[in-house]
Amino acid sequence: MRWRRDRLWIAQLALGGGSTVLYALGVVPALAFAVVGGACVTAWAFGPRLHNVHPRRPWRLLTAAGICFLTGIIVRGVLVGQPPPLAQLGDLFTVLGFAGLIAGILAFLTRWGMDRHALLDGLIVCIGSVVASLLLFVQPALAIPGRPVVVTVLAGLYPLLDTVTVLLVANLAFTTAVRQPAFLLIGAMMALIFVGDVGYAIIGRHGDVVGTPLMDLPFLLAFTFGGAAALHPTAKVLSQATPLPIQAWSARRMLVIGPAVAVPFLLTVLLAHESRASRLILGAGGAAIVALLLVRASDAVQQHAAAQRRFEHQATHDPLTGLPNRRMLAIMVERLLTEPGDHDVWMFYLDLDGFKLVNDSWGHHAGDRLIVDVGARLRHALPQTATVARVGGDEFVVVQRCTEPEAMADARRIMECIERPLVIVTAEGVTADVVVGASMGIVRADHQDRAESLMRDADTAMYRAKEAGRNRWTVFDASMRDAVRERLEIEVALRAAVAQEQLSIAYQPIVELPGGRPAGAEALVRWEHPVRGWLGPNMFIAVAEDSNLISALGAWVLRESVRQLARWRAGGVVDEDFWLSVNVSPRQLGDAAFAERLAATLRQAGVPPASLVLEITESVMIEGSDLAERVLVDLRALGVRISVDDFGTGFSALGYLRRHPVTGVKIDRSFVSGLGASAEDEEIVRAVVAMSSALHLSVVAEGVETEAQRDVLVSLGVPLAQGWLWGRAVPAERFERDRVGERVPARSD
Q1: Are the C-beta atoms of residues 226 and 189 closer than 8 Å to each other?
Q2: pTM of structure
Q3: Can you tell me the distance from the alpha carbon of 562 to that of 553, in angstroms, rounded to the nearest whole number?
Q4: Which of 230, 358, 592, 661 could bond to 636 as cystine, CB 3.0-4.6 Å?
Q5: CA distance from start to end of the chain
Q6: What is the pLDDT of residues 410-420, one digit of tens each?
Q7: DSSP 3-state assignment of 645?
Q8: Pick from 669, 676, 677, 664: which is nearest to 648 by CA?
Q9: Three-state SS letters, 214-275
């Protein structure tokens, strides 16, 4: 049914085309006009309903115009040969039809919004048409002697109505950049009406009011195209015109405007011998066109200048907050650094803490409102001499020339204004109060600083504040720059180490309590730096995370660990129940193909998925994306076990454990170290064991170094443990020599 509705416009074109051919051949001409005109009026009346077109007022006006046109044709045919003014009764309906047609097209243009340039260009074309009509058609028609007044008036009125049609057609063409089929069909209808009327205006110069039937063909085709426009599915977009970004005098535009501009000058030559009235019309028309051209040119220059200013503003300001962007900030800071002043230049670089949680929980609309509100708060909280800029998604920079006490006071103002609750509104209109914090780096410029180096140092201090616990500020010192340089050097060396497989894997046993029998092992990556020697994971894992090396590094560790477990199983070093625990990063879990590749690795090595435990951080559950959650589900479906590492140090909650497919938790060493001495740590471990037991999760305590700690863990019911009490992480060969498959006696080395 929908397909049939969308094809009705084709039926209208076929009906109109066939009727036009029959009319041209002289076959029932009166019937042809009645059929085509009736079909057009019906299409205008009911077609917009088929495609739920709104608003319908323009189509109602066109329907009224069509009825008047059709009535005029019928009445004119019935009264042909009657004396004036009775014979001109049909023309009365035709004039009313023109009024309805003009009103309908104006309704479309009003809906679109009339562009000033389009209106000026349309007026230029219209004035050219008026001058041509007055001199070529109206004056000759008015000069014919012996005709009734009503005939003379109509002969002069039709060409003037056609000039209005020209204006409307020009504005249709100049107003929208996207010309859908319905738009083109309406434009074709208007053009055909103009062509038909010009034909009658030409014969009217000699006093004729009736021409050959072939002169009515444009009107039949106009009815055809007009009806098809109402039935075409794109009729809906006629009320949603796409404005032209710049109303420029393009080559196609000049093809329409050029002839209108040339009309007064051409007719001045052709009609140089004519009357004073003709010369007056030519002079007034030419002057009006020149005046419009001057206004149009002046307008174009002004709009170009305004567009240039908008472009420059957009290039140097943040579109969301209106604050200066990074590019503009650099220019302003360079200017400030070169200007003499009594005080130092201070820069505050802040990053919002908790913005991602707001964005993910409430949506991007709420996140945008939060950014706008923070920018406004900073602007109002600081002195007018301070510059506030937005340089990233949730990053702002403040620059101020002031004393050190004033800088510290500004820092407090910044933190206080951000920490106050903010009211956000979601895209659905839901209102909520949220609280965010900020990590801020502060730096004072010296005489050698440039804008780029100042921002780099402030950014470094901000990250140091974030690492120290967030929601605080840190003042930059030179040692931070050295730390950044060292970090970059480690990153470069680590890239080479990953590419050349210079890293190694050590294995630390995980034992059953109380006996101490090895049940599994954790694979830990080690790196012997060419200059610094052996580096622990805490020295380079964070670098790998920040530089996106962690995916390649993690994939290598997983692959080598699984292969090593396969060799141990094949050699009888470990039994079939022995499992291997490997850490995976959030970036790895952000790879949709991670589970599939891991399955292939396990298949090739011949290791069952249940023999592998993947350790994730609590942040994966708290901040993880939908993709990471799907990957975890895929891993569990594969049979791999999933444990939460360092449990208890972050946002540990029963709800997170229930929502994610984890199979175990690893109690962080910070709680284990106090066992036997701290009642609080003992209660925390007791709570973790109780919660895990209720959820049927396995529990491993890490960092066990003393027998006293072991004994407390046994009394609390912890089934598995890991730590130096049973051995440090050692290479695979050493691990084999320690006879992992047998009970390993406790030792304190």
Answers
A1: yes
A2: 0.50
A3: 14
A4: 661
A5: 83
A6: 999 999 999 88
A7: strand
A8: 669
A9: HHHHHHHHHHHHHHHHHHCHHHHHHHCCCECCCCCCCHHHHHHHHHHHHHHHHHHHHCCCCC
